[in-house]
Write a structure and sequence with these properties.
It contains eight helices and 15 strands. The protein is of the alpha/beta class. The strands form four sheets. Strands 2-1-5-6-7-8 form a six-stranded parallel beta sheet, sandwiched between helices. Strands 10-9-13-14-15 form a five-stranded parallel beta sheet, sandwiched between helices. A two-stranded antiparallel ribbon has the order 3-4. The chain is globular, with a radius of gyration of 20 Å. The protein binds ribose-5-phosphate (R5P). The site of ribose-5-phosphate has 13 residues, from strand 13 and helix 6.
Amino acid sequence: MIVIGGSSSRDLAKELAMIMDCKCILASSTRFPDGECYTRIEGDSLKDDVVIVQNTYPDTSIIEMILIQDAAKRMGAKSITLVIPYFGYARQDRIFKPGEPESAKVMARHLSLACDRVYTVDIHKEGVLKNFKCPAKDLKASGAIADYFKDKGIDLVLAPDAGAADRAKDVGTRMGVPYDYLEKVRLSGTEVKIAPAKMDCFGKNVLIVDDIIATGGTITAATVQLKEAGAQSVSVACTHGVFTGDAIQRLTGGNIDALLCCNTLENKLSNISVASTVAEELKKRMKRRRPRK
Ligand code: R5P
């Protein structure tokens, strides 16, 4: 197996290759003078099972992901597995207003034109997986998040909305602490309203888990609500730290006691690694493919 890291997922690719005990090639990526993407996989041939790690954010990564797949195929890759740690566009998984595209479907179709298998991590809507042109599976970051927080004195795990309730359940169950979710109403792209928690949060060390933090509006509203309810501390962990604009400064300078995300997107808060989660799945798959003696 050879792991190829695209420009948006280099650290994760390196860590994954280390765990898999295989070669890692970091695809070089530059821009032509007109801004078009130039990418190259160093070497003459691949002739092995290839795992490409690259996410879809920012948009330029999408072009690179498509081009790397073509290069790998031309270099003789026996199979191509695409690991997309952060699959963007999954929030536009249906038409909300006439005239809109079904972005998630378009992305899934085009990204899987030259690969044999796709793995995503905590994709916003699992239904999107059926649009890939090859078998696709979503891996969960709950195990990595629960492992990180298991010795940190957390009393309660909460999801900021009903959509993330299963995530809170999974993390809470793994940590052996109660879990629940808050009721959220989205007022605009940046503003949300969160109802008081049903569970008693007074004096509790609460961990909020979500899939994405973008503007930070959801997490800010949830934290304010929990602090008003007397929570002793509020820690926040998300899978994908998109952190638009100055979200990191705003969130770390506010009410939140600890803020972390997974390394599906690499930034200064991405200290929870999903490399073992991906490696475990790749190893399972390799075992299944091995011919019986
Ligand atoms: C929404 O359904 C998602 O799970 C996240 O809660 C949301 O995308 C976070 O966005 P923001 O940080 O902009 O509130």
